[in-house]
Design a protein that fits this description.
This protein has 200 residues and is mostly helical. It is built from 9 helices and no strands.
Amino acid sequence: MLSMPESRPYHHGDLRAALLKSAERTLRDKGAAALSLRELARDVGVSHAAPGRHFKDKQALLDALALTGYERLLRTLGAADAPDRPIEERMTGLARAYLGFVIDNPALLELMFARKHEPDTTGRLAEAVDETFGSLTRIVADAQERGEIIPGDPERLMMVVASSLHGLAALVAACALSPEEALAGLDEQVHHLLHGLTPR
């Protein structure tokens, strides 16, 4: 008697988490273009229709991955922050945490920044973006209150800090600078960022 081929199960313990984990692995190894809901379903061992319960299309999956990235980055920065320390120590710790995140998650970070600028970015993803950048702005405002940073719009000042750190991260991502070199020079970079390059 011929046996019928086994169909893949529809249910999975935590299908959404399993799909995101598989998607992040594919993103890291092959890039966003290689992501496919059908391939992810095959990878986690469920029917090809099962991912549709959590992601209506590939774009919804990309948004969910970007959201995961922002939530992880926010936790990483939160764990590294030391509000009671002087601003240079505090900023160096945050910079080290951010650079570590970038080194570990280059493809995810690229996706996070790409999705941030999409015109249809709404809901939880938009909130996560605001929460992440808002946390950095609050650090600048806190340092201003202590007299550690010049007066001015804390959001604009935060952009100076963020662009410096992200520029360093971009050099690492482009292999123009090794992760070891970037981390080794981080204390000096933060010092120059806070104190400027003009002779004192």
